[in-house]
Amino acid sequence: MGDDSEWVKLPVDQKCEHKLWKARLSGYEEALKIFQKIKDEKSPEWSKFLGLIKKFVTDSNAVVQLKGLEAALVYVENAHVAGKTTGEVVSGVVSKVFNQPKAKAKELGIEICLMYIEIEKGEAVQEELLKGLDNKNPKIIVACIETLRKALSEFGSKIILLKPIIKVLPKLFESREKAVRDEAKLIAVEIYRWIRDALRPPLQSINSVQLKELEEEWVKLPTGAPKPSRFLRSQQELEAKLEQQQSAGGDAEGGGDDGDEVPQIDAYELLEAVEILSKLPKDFYDKIEAKKWQERKEALEAVEVLVKNPKLEAGDYADLVKALKKVVGKDTNVMLVALAAKCLTGLAVGLRKKFGQYAGHVVPTILEKFKEKKPQVVQALQEAIDAIFLTTTLQNISEDVLAVMDNKNPTIKQQTSLFIARSFRHCTASTLPKSLLKPFCAALLKHINDSAPEVRDAAFEALGTALKVVGEKAVNPFLADVDKLKLDKIKECSEKVELIHGKKAGLAADKKEFKPVPGRAAASGATGDKDTKDISAPKPGPLKKAPATKPGGPPKKGKPAALGGAGSTGTKNKKGLETKEIVEPELSIEVCEEKASAVLPATCIQLLDSSNWKERLACMEEFQKAVELMDRTEMPCQALVRMLAKKPGWKETNFQVMQMKLHIVALIAQKGNFSKTSAQIVLDGLVDKIGDVKCGNNAKEAMTAIAEACMLPWTAEQVMSMAFLQKNPKNQSETLNWLSNAIKEFGFSGLNVKAFISNVKTALAATNPAVRTSAITLLGVMYLYVGPSLRMFFEDEKPALLSQIDAEFEKMQGQNPPAPTRGISKHSTSGTDEGEDGDEPDDGGNDVVDLLPRTEISDKITSELVSKIGDKNWKIRKEGLDEVAGIINEAKFIQPNIGELPTALKGRLNDSNKILVQQTLNILQQLAVAMGPNIKQHVKNLGISIITVLGDSKNNVRAAALATVNAWAEQTGMKEWLEGEDLSEELKKENPFLRQELLGWLAEKLPTLRSTPTDLILCVPHLYSCLEDRNGDVRKKAQDALPFFMMHLGYEKMAKATGKLKPTSKDQVLAMLEKAKANMPAKPAAPAKATSKSVGGSAPAKFQPASAPVEDSVSGTVEPKLDPKKAKALGVSSKAKTAQGKKVPSKTSLKEDEDKSGPIFIVVPNGKEQRMKDEKGLKVLKWNFTTPRDEYIEQLKTQMSSCVAKWLQDEMFHSDFQHHNKALAVMVDHLESEKEGVIGCLDLILKWLTLRFFDTNTSVLMKALEYLKLLFTLLSEEEYHLTENEASSFIPYLILKVGEPKDVIRKDVRAILNRMCLVYPASKMFPFIMEGTKSKNSKQRAECLEELGCLVESYGMNVCQPTPGKALKEIAIHIGDRDNAVRNAALNTIVTVYNVHGDQVFKLIGTLSEKDMSMLEERIKRSAKRPSAAPVKQVEERPQRTQSASSNTNMLRKGPAEDMSSRLNQARSMSGHPEAAQMVRREFQLDLDEIENDNGTVRCEMPELVQHKLDDIFEPVLIPEPKIRAVSPHFDDMHSNTASTINFIISQVASGDINTSIQALTQLFQIESLAREASTGVLKDLMHGLITLMLDSRIEDLEEGQQVIRSVNLLVVKVLEKSDQTNILSALLVLLQDSLLATASSPKFSELVMKCLWRMVRLLPDTINSINLDRILLDIHIFMKVFPKEKLKQCKSEFPIRTLKTLLHTLCKLKGPKILDHLTMIDNKNESELEAHLCRMMKHSMDQTGSKSDKETEKGASRIDEKSSKAKVNDFLAEIFKKIGSKENTKEGLAELYEYKKKYSDADIEPFLKNSSQFFQSYVERGLRVIEMEREGKGRIPISTGISPQMEVTCVPTPTSTVSSIGNTNGEEVGPSVYLERLKILRQRCGLDNTKQDDRPPLTSLLSKPAVPTVASSTDMLHSKLSQLRESREQHQHSELDSNQTHSSGTMTTSSSSTANIDDLKKRLERIKSSRK
Predict the structure, then answer these.
(1) Partner of 1090 at 20 to 30 A CA spacing, among 69, 973, 1535, 1744?
(2) Residue 844 predicted with pLDDT over 80
(3) Phi/psi of residue 970, each to 5°?
(4) Cis bond before residue 1362 (omega within 30° of 0)
(5) 836 has a pLDDT exceeding 80
(6) pLDDT digits (tens, 9 = 90+) for 1054-1084
(7) Is residue 1093 over pLDDT 70?
(8) Which residues of 1543-1567 are buried (b: 16+ CB within 10 A; e: fewer)?
(9) In contact, 1324 and 1288? CB cutoff 8 Å
(10) What CA–CA distance (Å, rounded) separates 1342 from 1362?
(11) Per-residue pLDDT tens for 1173-1231?
């Protein structure tokens, strides 16, 4: 049994691995207990067992294994680290537990697996369980399936991935084991519960009997959506929510949530993709062309079988689709057409989105084939086109569909309309935007008037569906001309329509009808935005939303911003007109006369054709008056204009009558409902008169009025055609001039460019120069709107003419099209108003693009050309490509149908000849420009292939590919590229070039998008693998792109996607994600309404020559989001467009223009903080160097890239200094306008400027300094504070420049240093400048010394850091410098100090050589300045001190400005530590006379007096001056109402400013009644908080840290004095106990608590009667129980035990034997150490008659008593001398020695002194003498109520520490004068006298800090004492009433005189107070 006893002693973890099963069993049991006890999931205990858990579950002994499983389950449930064991433990469970015969083991195994899933390790568990299904042991398989089933049942299909399970199901159904088949059936039922019918297709292959059984089971399942019953840890809150819902009886929301879950699983996703291309019959392509239809049929049947597979693998199906398309289109056998259509259906269904690229080729063919009448063919074609529609978008095929709509064949028209109706059903309001709806509605409206009823019905159905989908509001504008009958029919159809998307779309539509404006916004905004990128272009309104996506549009491609301006308003107009267009039938002349006579005077009508012109004139005047008075609704416009046109009409010869007539036409058009019918009557006449010298202007006015009434596009078309039918060139030129002007007034929207261009060409060919000039002017105006593409139409004009056109275009460059002023109000009714603005601007922009004539080139793309391009010989291939380039060039703008060209070009992209690849890329670039937005449909088949080229090894090929991709993306937007898996597939390829280029491209494009397709998430796994790529560039690009991916996908999704990474990778990636989260830019905002004018503008830029360099398009795109405040950016940016007038603009000109656009500094939220963190965490280099190395420059470049405009950065880091100058100039320009940006990037700007300091070029340096002056002026205006990081990385380098030889530069640097003091404390500047005095450059030394002098002069001695003494000593060294200038500067600086501080200077600078001293004295004499009474400037201190300098916050802005007087007050009260001896008297004196005469302007030194009742004068005033706002002067009046007082104080405590809070608390503790209310618990928390605050090291970093500590210190005293004494004593004892118990607590904390206790002990004599001693003794009892004597003695410090003894001793002394009656609250006194201790003490005090038990001596004496009884006298004395000899305890030792000598006066200490040095002996003697003097004097020292044991941690305020440091400071004798001086000071500090005796040492002795003996002069010693005193006064900021004497003679006055003094003082203060009010 020896064995047994051995293992029993082993630790638990070793037992668990023991070979004995008993040992293991015991180990597991113990482990289980341990696991159940550990409460903290992150406890280190867990990690000990990390490696053992697998052994727990795989134990070979079945009994032991059961216990192990239990322990493992608890471990997995509770341990934070358990996730790391998932793989090994679950595989152990599968292999060793699931095969156990015991059911309990299996249950525990399953539970463990489920627990792992709960702690977020579902994937790993599932992987192991699926591996288990391949095990040979059926038991294991069954258990694995059961576990999966339970997991699915409990966690749901979101957590458990169904696809891999469904994949193995058929295999499980085939198992020979019945148990496995049964379990498979159960899991199939469970899966069906979650995904319903999506499970059917994958299980079609199983045995029919089994399938039937399953069907039966499935039917029994409840129909409701299943819900998970168990949740992951991260979802636990959801569980709670669900329970609440169920308990509330409704699970509506839950249902909603899970409702989404069911459709989430798509059967298609669960299927395996099948590869069919290789399985096609080898002779398929021959057979399909065969002449015999049977052979063709065989080929098609073979395909039909293959495409029946429900999911097909992606591949190149182009040839197959082409073959099928040919059959559908050309085969004469209708059966084969139907068969081919079925094959296409199969392909589309199997490939889904991957078929989209072929859709464009097939759709037109199928639609045209609808001419077949046979039902089965029509049905097959319908199925095919419906399936194809689902693989693409309506947008992409709209062109083809609309083209077929004009077909003459009614069947085709009918079927196309029906197809449109079916397609609409799949749409939602967002996927069917106006731009798409408009052309379809236009085409369908033609059909509803068709002669064939079936065509009409189909059109009604399509329109009805559209109405249902998008709502009436969106469709109504297009139905304006439809008569009511037809409108009703459409509405009737709409009611019958069932939408695919259920009710949702319908609801949306209804909502829209009720809420017109928001509804519309929803339609365009919500998902319309998704489409914003895809500028796909159906002819009528293509360019869907390009402009809108890029809020600052213009810089992107330099299109003038305001095209949209015109566009939006113009279109709105058009919209308005469509809604309200006045349709008027033409009336006969008789009817007109009748109507006119009703409204015009009879005479007027009669005189119209009078032969006398005067009568006609009079008639016109009457006519005009009548028209002016008429009401709009009553005015018969047509009748009136007919009257005017009546003979003589427009042939009127008298110009006055004619002018009048034309004016009346204008009036009618403006005032009436003027229709096109009326316009046609008058326009001819107007055009005829437009050239007339006298009437021309009136004619133009009338035309403009008509244009406003009937819209410019229509009017312009009419006018142009009429003008060019005329012969009169004057009329032609004036018409053109009118049109130029009208376009500017109305905007360009809706104008027919084609018609214009042909008319302008006619005009350009005119012989009359005036016509040509007018035409060129018109072109100039059009250029403003259309952009450079306009020039293309005129390239074949004569060179002379072309140069004139170019000159005109040149003039227009850089101009913005004017905002339209007309055509706005008339038609925009409230209904069509705001809501439509959403898409409107685009229509405007589009029309321009759209109206350009496009050429059809498909007939030129012949099969010969295609075969040429694919030829084996590269020269022929090149010829083919040249031809294509020629065709595109010639056509300029082409239609989207380009036949076989895409396939041919795609082949060339991977040509072995790189020159041809580049040529192909150039062609594709051309193609993008020529085709415009329609290129979108080629993105999938051609665009993605271009991306593949980005992986080319040759740099120039990659550059060309990138340029091409950008040219395409510009036309298509990004949506097309990001949809689907294509992009992620490219990123997956492990080609470093491809990866870095593609990621770079995405990083550039993503930030400009407002939304992205969800498919973007597919790229994330590959992005993560790029983050760990071997190639550094790939990693860098991936990191750059990370924040932009996060911007669209959100941090959560990105973090979730890390789940599949290896643990090591995951941690790294998550760290990067955290970092990216901080730098994540905001999404670009949607363009505001106001700017919508300018947005559409970028549309026509589409035609910009492709050669525009790519990178230029980038910088602009990011910018709009930078600074939303700057709408200005939009204005400026239009300039970017200018350089493109010529066909190929030069790169530089483009750059220059682009410079002007957008903000230069980008505000990255938290960017600066992140950079500081990185620098602190040493992630980046600290900015510290002697000369800048490359890595510093690179680092700065990288940091700037995210927040500085790219072009500016290029300038900043250019090798040529002129570029630096240019950059500085730009920065100066943008300084005012971009304050936010400048402050956000300040650290980087300053670092960049330090680099400029190392440049040799003076001009750059001058410019940099100029910028800095402006910058610091701005920063001080903005009240910004430099952070430490910014200061330390800039000031040292600026100081280098102060030593420049050039005077101008030195002057500038000094000016900058001067300004810097406004944004950075002078006291912090001081050390930097001091460092500069150590330079080798004498000029620099001299300048720095001068600057130091200026600082002292401006800000007083407080700026000298670390202390004035040290600083001045360093400055004084330079008096002996070689260089004369340095000597002078040093002398001047010291003289400055002398002027501020007087003779004190000599003491501070220490000993100087005689020569130096004489120079200094000489200089001081010469300066002939006497030291002023007090430093004048000191009052003002540093302005920045008055701020609440929260230097932790980054933006360091000030709070609301306070009034200046309180600022200065506070500045004065906080000014540092002036250290001049002469000023002590003045400092402490209170000149009451002066205060009395003052009426509030001079700041008195005791502002606190205002806040206190006069009785308080007997107490020291403890409140430090408030920092932000003084507590109300009428605070006292509020005391009457406690509630209001408390509210007031709480509002103060909650102040953001720490001092205000502290002051408020102090106020609280000043009101005795309130202070006494504080309970023990409250006081404990408060004291804990205050002490922690005092010890907080961060406070010292604050500018006013010391001040804060002092304030807290005073508050502590207040709390101790004013609180309920029992509560506070009790609180302090508990706090002491806690702090000694807590391991983490700092010893200083305990020390401060004890100091508070000592303070309380001091107060005991006064407060003993108010204390509940029973409670206090109970607390002491508890303390002694927790800390028995032995334990206390083990403490590092002896203070706790001494503190406790002192407290008890004092209580004993005060209460005597009665103290023993107060032990009532202690349960069993006998056990209490306390009682014994008290008894001992009582006995001891009875015995001890010799000593008076002074509070002063109690500890020393009692200790001597105790010890002397125990040890020999010699030992005791030896210990005392040992203390005196030690640095720390010297004072204590001297005190004890004094006590000892006093007690045992005969004791001989000679032997101890004999062996020591002479110095030590005199030191001891002197020390004893000093103590004697103090103790003797002590009897006369008045009582104190101030804070004595000062809360400075450095002093040791035990009663024994009474040796004055005067005794320690040097070896000379100390004369009585020292003490006299000291008494004087104290007397002055406290203007009162009090002769009450006290037994406490004077304050001075308590404040003195133990000092090391040093040799110094006696004056030095005196000075140090005085400065300490002075310091202590400032520390307390209140009159400390310790040791006060009043008369300089030093004699004591009687108490009666003291009372008289106080009365006098009271009266004076009353007077002051009343004068203040």
Answers:
(1) 973
(2) no
(3) -65, -35
(4) yes
(5) no
(6) 888 888 888 788 888 888 888 888 877 777 7
(7) no
(8) ebbeebeebebbbbbbbbbbbbbbb
(9) no
(10) 21
(11) 888 888 888 888 888 888 888 888 888 888 888 888 888 888 888 888 889 998 898 88
Q: How far is 575 from 828, CA to CA, in rounded Å?
A: 8
Q: Determine the 3-state secondary structure of 312 from DSSP.
A: strand
pLDDT on residue 1841? 41
Per-residue 3-state assignment (H helix, E strand, C coil) for 688-709: HHCCCCCCHHHHHHHHHHHHHH
pLDDT of residue 1581: 86
Rounded to the nearest integer, the mean pLDDT of the chain is 75
In this prediction, residue 1153 has a pLDDT band, given cuts at 50, 70 and 90, of very low
Q: What is the 3-state secondary structure (H, E, C) of 1360-1377?
A: CCCCHHHHHHHHHHHHHC
Q: What are phi and psi of 1564, to 5 degrees?
A: -60, -45
* pTM value surpassing 0.70: no
Question: In whole angstroms, how far apart are CA 1568 and each of 1509, 1573, 1616?
Answer: 13, 9, 12
CA-to-CA distance for 458 and 378, rounded, in angstroms?
Answer: 15
* Maximum pairwise Cα distance, the chain: 154
Contact 637, 673 (CB under 8 A): yes
Helical ranges in 1105-1233 per DSSP H: 1110-1118, 1128-1133, 1147-1155, 1167-1176, 1190-1201, 1206-1212, 1217-1231
pLDDT at 1870 (0 to 100): 56
CB 781 within 8 A of CB 811: no
CA distance linking residue 1442 with residue 1355, whole number of Å: 13
Q: What is the DSSP string of 143-161?
A: HHHHHHHHHHHHH-TTTS-
Rounded-to-integer distance, Cα 397 and Cα 936, Å: 10
Query: Apex CA 1808: angle with CA 1802 and CA 1810, to 5°?
Result: 110
Q: DSSP secondary structure string, 715-784? A: HHHHHHHHHHHS--HHHHHHHHHHHHHHHHHH-STT--HHHHHHHHHHHHT-S-HHHHHHHHHHHHHHHH
Q: Write out the two tokens for 556.
A: 């992107």
Alpha helices in 1424-1537 (DSSP H): 1460-1470, 1479-1484, 1488-1493, 1531-1534
Lowest mean pLDDT among 242-256, 393-407, 715-729, 1631-1645: 242-256
Q: pLDDT-derived band of residue 1860, with 50, 70 and 90 as boundaries? A: very low
Please say if the pLDDT value at position 485 is more than 70: yes
Among left, alpha and beta (phi > 0; psi -120 to 50; other), residue 767 is alpha
Confidence of residue 1943 (pLDDT cuts 50, 70, 90): very low
Q: How many residues appear in the chain? A: 1973
1486: which DSSP letter? -
Tokens of 1595: 């406070």
Contact 1958, 1935 (CB under 8 A): no
pLDDT tens, residue by residue, 1722-1750: 877 666 777 778 787 777 766 654 444 44
User: ∠ CA 614-616-617 to the nearest 5 degrees?
Assistant: 60
Whether residue 1236 contacts residue 1123, with contact meaning beta carbons closer than 8 Å, is answered with: yes
Q: Report how far residue 1067's alpha carbon sits from residue 171's, in angstroms, rounded to the nearest whole number.
A: 38
Tokens of 437: 């709806």
In this structure, are residues 1262 and 1304 in contact, taking their beta carbons and an 8 Å threshold? yes
A 10 A CB-CB count for 245 gives 15
The residue assigned the tokens 């190639």 is: 1031
Q: Dig out the tokens for 316 from the structure.
A: 């190149």
- Position 1919 scores a pLDDT of 58
Q: In sequence order, which ranges of 792-873 are alpha helices (DSSP H)?
A: 799-812, 840-851, 863-869
Q: Which pLDDT belongs to residue 1858?
A: 38
**Residue from 1401, 1397, 1414 nearest 1480 by CA:** 1397
Strand partners, 312: 274
pLDDT tens for 1903-1937 read: 444 444 444 444 555 555 555 655 555 555 444 44
* Token pair of 572 as six digits: 């709105």
